[in-house]
Write a structure and sequence with these properties.
The chain has 3 domains: 6-105 and 176-467, Glycosidases (TIM Barrel); 110-161, Oligo-1,6-glucosidase, Domain 2 (Oligo-1,6-glucosidase, domain 2, Alpha-Beta Complex), CATH 3.90.400; 479-558, Immunoglobulin-like, CATH 2.60.40.1180. 27% of the residues lie in helices and 18% in strands. The strands form 7 sheets. The protein has an 8-stranded parallel sheet. A 5-stranded antiparallel sheet has the order 18-19-20-25-22. A 3-stranded antiparallel sheet has the order 6-8-7, with no helix packed on it. With 559 residues, the protein is α/β, with parallel strands linked by helices. Bound molecules: 1-O-alpha-D-glucopyranosyl-D-fructose (TEU) and calcium ion (CA).
């Protein structure tokens, strides 16, 4: 069938290089560290590695602030190391994709350094400069990392736009010279042999050129400009141009990071004139099942019904029309076991349940480093131990009006640093990550939770992931099958059927730590099915009834 593609069948493993493995003992993970651990990655059974940014960067936002697209961050190594990594990955029969961060650069990129020289610099219009509104910034937009989205520059008496940190000025995509420079950088990397891109906030490129004020939410100081910079008027033109100029010439995969994109856009942007454009996108809808949609720091209990609705909508909506990217966590989100499972008594059971979800959904699964061993959130006792710019800004802004311990509670639950502590390789010094003090503290639980012991225990989370990945690969129905929710009304169990040609699979996930009974609908005859994988060995079911244990997951196959 023509719509079967390698990137649909792939399982992706996301690496945050800074925290993966330190090969030269300076406390910072690096490219050679990834090369050293290549067999570990291969053994997981994954097909594609996605590397978070490795380009030259002053690291205001750990590499998402790029000062040179054609060079490697000093701490990570040399360009030759990347060439070697690409070769090694390919030798192992895997592929590698890089992060493409082109909504903004670092303020230390030479384009910006020239741009801020004077209003008539040839590089001035590479960025978005505006006059102030009297003594105020051009509009009321807040930056995603806190504070105003505009920074005043004394020298030229204008403001520049930064939707993220002040050290991340937004590029001006209106200008074809800017776009062409970006395309040239992309081709340069593709010609080195990389297999695609994860495109950072790619739906923020086109801004409403009137720059209207945004609505100010309760308790906030700045306006929310998102409706004026997400999915803007020229976005499709820019991306289809990128397709024509770059993407369509290569057999690659592309995944857009697209907050607030929506299903209609996901379908629309997946193709341009019959060519694959954005193969899939990371939408953020399920990231709000346990938090306020507009304010990530305001938490609530998991709403499983909402989660079901979101998957139902996307899975049905994309069926035969597009393709999904399946993730529960990444370097911007808390650890999945702490967030959607339990990091206490049922850590193993719940981590395996979540692995089952990730690997039985329609769409390409993305696993984030450390989740395969069930790494958990961390609690540092002092804000000084946090490294993430967003977390630090949040603390600075919020402690002005709120008790420190309240703010720390939010940070414990939501900080991006939860997912950025070093990979836990073994129980030795610094978890085997480095011989020197790591750039960010380890999670103190590394003596119990680490790769070495996980490899030894036959019922470890790690071994479950490997088995689950194999199960997906051996059952095409889990990749291409149609998706239908069952037991829709049940508030604690997520169950669905995947149907593909003559194959049928029934997946049952108990999302909470209660023991409970479920009754299957009449059209499912469970005696005709076999369990192909479960996180318990003593499953209990008969006829129409299944007794579920805490976080129990079951994958049945019609025999
Ligand atoms: O993230 C963009 C984004 O919209 C959020 O996930 C954001 O990081 C944050 O969690 C807001 O609360 C991407 C990258 O994944 C992130 O690491 C970068 O910091 C950001 O873009 C800027 O490049
Ligand atoms: Ca290092």
């Amino acid at each position: 069938m023509s719509n079967q593609k390698w990137w649909k069948e792939a399982v992706v493993y996301q690496i945050y290089p800074r925290s993966f493995y330190d090969s030269n003992n300076d406390g910072i993970g690096d490219i050679n560290g990834i090369i050293k651990k290549i067999d570990y990655i291969k053994d997981l059974g994954v097909d594609v590695i996605w590397l978070c940014p490795i380009y030259k960067s002053p690291n205001a936002d750990n590499g998402y602030d790029i000062s040179d697209y054609k060079n490697v961050m000093d701490e990570f190594g040399e360009i030759e190391d990347v060439d070697k990594l690409i070769k090694e990955v390919h030798n192992k029969g895997m592929k590698i994709i890089l992060d493409l961060v082109v909504n903004h650069t670092s303020d230390e990129h030479n384009w910006f350094e020239k741009s801020k020289q004077s209003t008539d610099s040839a590089f001035r219009d590479y960025y978005i400069w505006k006059d102030g509104n009297g003594d105020l910034p051009p509009n009321n937009w807040g930056s995603i990392f806190g504070g105003s989205a505009w920074k005043y520059d004394q020298k030229t008496n204008q403001y520049y736009l930064h939707l993220f940190d002040v050290k991340q000025p937004d590029l001006n995509w209106e200008k074809s010279k800017v776009r062409n420079k970006i395309y040239e950088n992309m081709r340069w990397w593709l010609d080195k042999g990389i297999d695609g891109f994860r495109m950072d906030v790619i739906n923020m490129l086109s801004k409403d050129l009137n720059f209207p004020d945004g609505k100010i939410m309760r308790n906030e100081k700045y306006g929310d400009g998102s409706q004026y910079f997400l999915n803007g008027p020229k976005l499709y033109d820019y991306l289809s141009e990128m397709g024509e100029e770059v993407l369509f010439d290569y057999d690659i995969m592309t995944v857009g990071e697209t907050p607030g994109f929506g299903l209609v856009n996901a379908i629309k942007f997946s193709k341009h004139k019959g060519n694959d454009l954005l193969n899939m996108v990371f939408h953020f809808e399920h990231m709000s099942v346990d938090r306020d949609n507009k304010n990530k720091w305001v938490n609530k209990e998991i709403d499983l019904k909402l989660l079901k609705d979101i998957y139902e909508k996307w899975n049905k909506g994309l069926y035969k029309k597009g393709w999904n990217a399946i993730y529960l966590g990444n370097h911007d989100q808390p650890r999945i076991v702490s967030r959607f499972g339990s990091d206490k008594q049922y850590r193993k059971e719940s981590a395996k349940m979540l692995a089952t979800l990730l690997l039985t959904m329609p769409g390409t699964p993305y696993l984030y480093q450390g989740d395969e061993i069930g790494m958990t959130n961390v609690k540092f006792d002092d804000i000084g131990k946090y490294r993430d710019v967003e977390t630090i800004n949040h603390y600075r802004v919020k402690t002005k009006s709120r008790p420190k311990d309240k703010v720390m509670q939010q940070i414990y639950r939501t900080s991006r640093d939860n997912a950025r502590t070093p990979m836990q390789w073994n129980k030795n010094v610094n978890a085997g990550f480095s011989q020197s003090t790591p750039w960010i503290n380890l999670n103190p639980n590394y003596k119990e939770i680490n790769v070495e012991s996980s490899l030894k225990e036959s019922d470890s989370i790690l071994n479950y992931y490997k088995k689950m990945i194999k199960t997906r690969k051996n059952n095409k129905g889990l990749i291409y099958g149609k998706f239908d929710t069952v037991l829709y009304e049940n508030k604690s169990v997520f169950a669905y059927i995947r149907t593909y040609e003559k194959q049928k699979y029934l997946i049952i996930l108990n999302f909470f730590e209660n023991y409970l009974q479920i009754k299957l609908p009449d059209n499912i005859k469970i005696d005709e099915y076999n369990i192909i994988i479960s996180n318990y060995t003593n499953n209990e079911y008969n006829n129409k009834n299944i007794a579920l244990k805490p976080y129990e997951s079951l994958v049945f196959k019609l025999s």
